[in-house]
Amino acid sequence: MTFSPPQSDILFALTAQAGFDRLIACGAFPDCDLDLVRAVLAAAGDFAQDVLAPLNRPGDVAGARLENGEVRAAPGFAEALQSYGQGGWSGLAASPEHGGQGLPRAVEQAANEMMHAANMAFGLCPMLTLGAIEAIAAHASPDLQAIYLPPMVAGAWTGAMNLTESAAGSDLAAVRTTATPTPDGAYRLNGQKIFITWGDHDAAENIVHLVLARIPGAPEGVKGISLFLAPKFIPTPQGGIGERNGVRVAGLEHKLGIHASPTCVMAFEDALAWRVGEENRGLAHMFTMMNAARLGVGVQGVAIAERAYQQAFSFAQERRQGRPVLAAQGDGPIADHPDVRVNLLVMKAKIEAARALCLLTAVEGDLAHAAPNAADRETARLRQDFLVPIAKAWSTDRGVEIASLALQIHGGMGFIEETGAAQHYRDARIAPIYEGTNGIQAIDLIGRKLGQANGEAAKSLLAEAGDIAKALASHPDPRLQAAAPFLTSALSSAVQATHWIEAAKLRSLPDALTGATAYLTLMGETLGGALIAKGALAVLASETDPAQRDARIRSLTVYAAHVLAKTPGLRAAIELGALALGA
Ligand SMILES: Cc1cc2nc3c(=O)[nH]c(=O)nc-3n(C[C@H](O)[C@H](O)[C@H](O)COP(=O)(O)OP(=O)(O)OC[C@H]3O[C@@H](n4cnc5c(N)ncnc54)[C@H](O)[C@@H]3O)c2cc1C
């Protein structure tokens, strides 16, 4: 159950597929070059492998526990969180003004992939803290920033995101927690939140809760929700730990997976809180955190897929059954059965596609802030907005699919806990649910993102993919040529389905919404395929190692045959609209 950090694959995705050179060229990250990125990834890989991976299975078995009204983190997790902070990992992309290192968020996501792969339950705590840091930095008053950001960036305090209530899950308009103003400009929160990840624990000095609540008299629905910051302990004026706030863990959920990540029922009982950002604009502000967290969850999908793949690959080299037709003299491990081999190759290719999609989304997110001119920032923002739901949903669906295939490759042993394949499958299953279910991501994609600025983001991404398909078709290598028609046909399906969805939105919402998930999947498969092709073209242009070249070409050909070839079927499903419901 060892984990081997895939640093070179991640670096390849950043540079050859996600366009990281645009971040270096934009001038906003003068201290960041490829040598630094390589060094950061190497150190992140070491930390993931040496510190986090050994805690993964014990954390699954022991879980977090509720004792005397306090959550105790699983054994070793508090020490690991301390090392994480001391290693500077919480501050990688935070502003130097708050003690951070000011690196691109794309580098942070790249490093985080290895942390999640090593230990997904652990990775959630920093992931939510990083999202909270981003939201506080973007929307909180300078006073709040001065108190809360330095210890959070230093990794001493962690963050939690409090949206969900028992009657307000996907529909946050139903949030009922109240925030009553106090005479000195603060608020008192009252209400109960459920499913709060790392909402309570003993692994950090303080926990900073970002909470959605309503100020009395606020309008109904999402236009009456504001965002608040409520710490577990009220900081002293010197920034130390002061008295206990009215924030209490009221229960701990028992779950299918991520056992070491405490999922808490949180009671806010006259909890002292401060507003973050404008009154009644809380949901919009929280989206700063949710966009970061949604991409972070997409990265978790890639991470758990990579971890499960590594384990399945290694098992398939050892296990012997039957006489595999791909083996010399018919004697070899199960990896030499074509059915097992093709599964492994498809898994690897899908990981490559999902990783490239997530890192492309991260690079666009960085450019949305850092590009030197306003038009480029706006283009990048639109592309990031469009890509976030795809990166979240497509990657996490692949995470579950690949963890399931990895278990399958283990045969009966996959179903037995001690091999560890089952844990990856159980852990992977939450990612399509939280941070907005994948169904909600699909609705967000077609309802809000697709039509923004006259569909500019989809048009530009599909146009770039079209150029890649042309480059494949005219490439001298026959293997690339053979893949070209599959990418071209997927692109044609994606373009036609986009027109169909846009027209259906005006004509009949049930028609458009019935195909929403199929549309998101079609976009994920197609854009992911274009990125794999981009990688294969890059490797043929620059790489001299034949093994590296063959590996990338193999990813492209297997992805063309086993993923892109199926995309016209997705288009057909989309265009059936509500007829598919028998309506
Ligand atoms: C382990 C875990 C950790 C979590 N961590 C956090 C956290 O840290 N902070 C936090 O605030 N929340 C957290 N959540 C909550 C999580 O974000 C919600 O569970 C999720 O958003 C779905 O809400 P729900 O469970 O109420 O499902 P529901 O909203 O009831 O949805 C049920 C089903 O209906 C579908 N559905 C609902 N509305 C629509 C619609 N309009 N159109 C189409 N389909 C729809 C959904 O896709 C889903 O399949 C966590 C949950 C879990 C299980």
Task: Provide a concise account of the structure shown.
The chain has 583 residues and is an alpha+beta fold. 58% of the residues lie in helices and 12% in strands.
Detail the topology: elements first, then pairings.
Elements: H1 7-17, H2 21-26, H3 34-62, E1 65-67, E2 70-72, H4 77-86, H5 105-118, H6 120-139, H7 142-153, E3 157-162, E4 178-181, E5 187-197, E6 206-213, E7 226-231, E8 233-235, E9 241-244, E10 247-252, E11 263-276, H8 282-318, H9 338-370, H10 374-409, H11 421-428, H12 438-449, H13 456-473, H14 478-507, H15 509-514, H16 516-542, H17 546-562, H18 567-576
Parallel strand pairs: 3-6
Antiparallel strand pairs: 1-2, 4-5, 5-11, 6-7, 7-11, 8-9, 10-11
Looking at how many chains there are and whether they match, the oligomeric state comes to single chain
Instruction: Give the fraction of residues assigned to helices.
Output: 55-70%
Strand content: 5-15%
Low-confidence stretches: none
Main beta sheet strand tally, sense and closure: 7 strands, mixed
Task: Give the CA-based shape.
Answer: globular
Number of helices: 18
Distance between the termini: 49 Å
- What's the order of the H and E elements? HHHEEHHHHEEEEEEEEEHHHHHHHHHHH
Tally of extended strands? 11
Q: Radius of gyration over alpha carbons? A: 24 Å
